[in-house]
Amino acid sequence: MILVINNQASEKEIEDVKKKIHQFGCEVYESMGLNHHILGVVGDTSDIESGTFQTISIVDKVILVQEPYKKANRLFHPDNTVVDVNDRSIGGKKLAIIAGPCSVESEEQILSIAKSVKNSGAGFLRGGAFKPRTSPYAFQGLKREGLELLKFAREKTGLPIVTEIMSTEFLDEFVEQVDVIQVGARNMQNFDLLRQLGKTNKPILLKRGLSATIEELLMSAEYIMAGGNENVILCERGIRTFEKYTRNTLDLSAIPAIKKLSHLPVIIDPSHAAGLWWMVEPMAKAAVVAGADGLIIEVHNDPENALCDGAQSIKPEKFDRLMGKLKILAQVEDREI
Amino acid sequence: MILVINNQASEKEIEDVKKKIHQFGCEVYESMGLNHHILGVVGDTSDIESGTFQTISIVDKVILVQEPYKKANRLFHPDNTVVDVNDRSIGGKKLAIIAGPCSVESEEQILSIAKSVKNSGAGFLRGGAFKPRTSPYAFQGLKREGLELLKFAREKTGLPIVTEIMSTEFLDEFVEQVDVIQVGARNMQNFDLLRQLGKTNKPILLKRGLSATIEELLMSAEYIMAGGNENVILCERGIRTFEKYTRNTLDLSAIPAIKKLSHLPVIIDPSHAAGLWWMVEPMAKAAVVAGADGLIIEVHNDPENALCDGAQSIKPEKFDRLMGKLKILAQVEDREI
Amino acid sequence: MILVINNQASEKEIEDVKKKIHQFGCEVYESMGLNHHILGVVGDTSDIESGTFQTISIVDKVILVQEPYKKANRLFHPDNTVVDVNDRSIGGKKLAIIAGPCSVESEEQILSIAKSVKNSGAGFLRGGAFKPRTSPYAFQGLKREGLELLKFAREKTGLPIVTEIMSTEFLDEFVEQVDVIQVGARNMQNFDLLRQLGKTNKPILLKRGLSATIEELLMSAEYIMAGGNENVILCERGIRTFEKYTRNTLDLSAIPAIKKLSHLPVIIDPSHAAGLWWMVEPMAKAAVVAGADGLIIEVHNDPENALCDGAQSIKPEKFDRLMGKLKILAQVEDREI
Amino acid sequence: MILVINNQASEKEIEDVKKKIHQFGCEVYESMGLNHHILGVVGDTSDIESGTFQTISIVDKVILVQEPYKKANRLFHPDNTVVDVNDRSIGGKKLAIIAGPCSVESEEQILSIAKSVKNSGAGFLRGGAFKPRTSPYAFQGLKREGLELLKFAREKTGLPIVTEIMSTEFLDEFVEQVDVIQVGARNMQNFDLLRQLGKTNKPILLKRGLSATIEELLMSAEYIMAGGNENVILCERGIRTFEKYTRNTLDLSAIPAIKKLSHLPVIIDPSHAAGLWWMVEPMAKAAVVAGADGLIIEVHNDPENALCDGAQSIKPEKFDRLMGKLKILAQVEDREI
């Protein structure tokens, strides 16, 4: 932490700031710039409230040097994390392809899609049982019945299931029944939920919030990891920008950025990003060559009658052709599908 | 709802779309533009999934005409809503001034601040007991003990208390003990929480999410209102933009916008918006003359040692001087403090 | 400038960086954090290309301490700048109210509006002669004829005229004929134009770009000032954000921010910000109490038939009522109109 | 164009609006929604000022159906445009790889880089002679001398040269000497410059502004094309968002979006987007598989001593390895390099 001190500060005022730094068990190094006086704070500053020094009138700026996350930080954990899910894994050489409908609608629907995406090479089945919807009047998911149907599809296909949790209320059921628990973008900073998930040992698929910085995403991962659960998979799914042609703007540069800052696996959701089915293919391909560890793709056998997000779902045949292309690109990148 | 149809669509394809519209109990009006064929959907379209028509290949665009919220919509409720809180109200001629520390830290602290802001003319006491913090290592609030201290301060000063709920887990305690339940920006789309709050009759202070549109804020209000609780107060607290000199960008145009779209009261939080104590005064004044129904301001007797958000808190003396200025402006605007 | 050095750097590599710092005539202070090695660069760093050190592989971060602008910086010029325009001034106790149509359309139109806004108390007349339009097919202004009409209106009313320059091609004519030369938001970083304007001594009204940070706005002012022209007036006119209910989001916190960072006057354009005539009044009032030095407001006698921006123009009667309200607020703020 | 009329409008008021529509030579179709009255405007609406109807008090919303660009619109020009540049082309099967330094610094530098990138397979040489810099104190380019050096490098290597124009002042020289004239992001809406370029027949590389929507980019292309010059190449180079880890956020979904809306070629600038040299490779690869028609990449033989943008430049050896990978990906995509 570096403090830039106003050049009109008195010696007494500067002494007071130094005393305060020492109270946190840190040391001070000092230097005079041309127009600024600089105080460097050496030691573990991660417990110092950022506001602590900003409130002091002679402090013009507080600059953080150290990233505020530890367990998610590649600095302290140089090797890539590989998260095990049943007999599979996410973060290794093999790309994790998670596919399925936005929401589980019926036994027939989920089973048909599950079989189909499995045949095309997907490794995991996604499907929403509890759905976060902007409108209280929209379909909110089949809830517990949806979980049952997902389990049924898993039984029939062997695909591990990935589904979103919306509240701590159902935590025990999710831990018991689900293979990967997804935290949606809108809940990325639902800290109570993160903390509870940190006490389990379930793989958590943590989606980046619509306007969350990469650092905030890593801090939310840190919440889960600080509780003891290091099985966190990060997911970029589009951020909110001024551009409205696409629903969100897919930030593929988040892949190399996160790979540099953290050791956690990163997957991409090309379906929610643009919200347009015909953009899924180019963005999925781009993600693979940019270094993603996997993809989560919405596939629906009847998008026009889907109960949610039909506009961004692709049909099984289209998914199959896409997988063919992705396999070639994965090979070029020395990965597998 | 208006559908813009591709000019290469066949008659048969258009017929199919019309049939689908009729299935929703809506009627179709039709018109040919120079390069586009237009289908208007007349009837109650609020139950139609937006994706329903976007998935059809001949549909180029789906344009919504009707706002997706009903109970929060001024169209169906022309008069301003006034929310009663104990013997006070929010949304009437008198501005609601809510003041207090970011977090409750001790009996002495909260009582001292409560007395002080009351003397300056504040009508409500704010204070965090459960704190949403970006870092798992930061102070998370005194929790239940914080609630007890707030109640103690209320008992001594008569000020109704406003505090944030972070999870449905503590809902009953909040309903029993708190006067206005605050939903923080990060939980604005925690739909489970909103739904539960909709089943109570408590006044809810709903903060706009960092990157939520005004329409999304109103949809979240709709969640609470759809459950039967119409005591919703909206709060603008700064949105996330590219500008980083301020922590967020206070969107004061949200005041006239919300007043036009909705009948619910709107208050402004100038403390969280910029995150800089010296911007609280100009932004608070601006909010009052722009038509806000109130303000929520962080006041701390010792910002330099505050356990959170010290950088944006003002001292009681500064708050007192600010209130003097606000009273004059309120009078100019034919409001009261 | 502060360099954060990777903790895996060798002594040799660090020595090389220090040598490079010395080459720029700067000194180095050094300190070891827990996980980082810090090199502080002391001296005039404003000539060092920011990329110079970022390219070195052992440098993890380059942190700038000093603002990159000098002449616009309040640090070196503590007193407010007051810009003289004919017999008036901008930046002093009296607020500068600039009013008039988006574009000059006819002698009758500009004269009628000029007289009307003068009667209401405006101090300056605005009107576009050369219009920057998103579409090549839209009305592009009366150009030279527009300038003539503005001069005619000035002759009849005595109001100094403010109008936008779009290209260096017409620079001489503008210098000779216009009282305040406006640089539009889209040209805020047209550096050639800025440089040319820096060689004149005309007052320049510099509008903030749609997505320009406050620092970038000050750097563009610096371009003009570096050439010797210190008569710069800054103008906030709304920034581009994700919110689309308003055309742009008016950033009123830019007023106190700029006042802290710079000595230049700041005015607000409430018309272009929201793009909605009914938001002009609340935002104009908010700007005055937030500390703006003036306003630039679009007034049109026949908005429905205006050749541009009718949607954000207010009628003369509405402007007159607004001025009545602004006079009271100015008085409360110890300013005048 | 569709007008949503307030449900409290009188018949007389609606009649007036219809008359106005007829005045523009358009026809009206009409329909009653449940809560809104809808007027459809049929005919060529591209000449109607968007504000024309928004100013009418009974008009709640104006919805545009037709895109405002014509010549750039794929609707009227279904086939891809291929722009010829000397003996090469941009927009065909062969990807256009444009490489070179941020700015031309010396004969030795530009020649060495030109030879090197040619050997690696680049088809065009880029290099800045006139440099737009945020700071007036930063290196502004070698200007005319830079153009001479570029011509010299072209003579020696045969690579067509691409360089940025900053002002109409040098237009004739650029037309005579340069092969592709680049319009930088900051000048995307310098309409005077665009108009002048429209009168030439030079290939124009038009970069998307930092906060320009895709539609605005296409409108700026339209400015050039409306003047008669249809040789426009579009370039996405990162947009401004809240995320600050990267300098800008590369919007790769702009590739399929532009391909759908327009027939013009699209290239990607992975260097300016992130501003980080180590992100150039993953983003360049992603661009190719997402369907880009080419890349513009900064290559410098000595990034640490580059006079600008060193932080985002890659060395020739790195560029060579990157080209090897891109060739494989191009082949997979049925393109060539």
TrEMBL record, chains A, B, C, D:
Enzyme Commission number: 2.5.1.54
Keywords: Transferase
One function term, GO molecular function aspect: aldehyde-lyase activity
GO biological process annotation, one example: aromatic amino acid family biosynthetic process
InterPro entries: Aldolase_TIM, Class-I_DAHP_synthase, DAHP1/KDSA, DAHP_snth_FXD, DAHP_syn_2
Domain DAHP synthase ferredoxin-like: 1-67
Ribosomal protein among keywords: no
Enzyme's top EC category: transferase
DAHP synthetase I/KDSA domain location: 89-325
Coiled-coil region list: none
PANTHER family for this protein: PHOSPHO-2-DEHYDRO-3-DEOXYHEPTONATE ALDOLASE (PTHR43018:SF2)
Protein name (record): Phospho-2-dehydro-3-deoxyheptonate aldolase
Upper classification of the organism: unclassified sequences, metagenomes, ecological metagenomes
Gene responsible for this protein: aroF_15
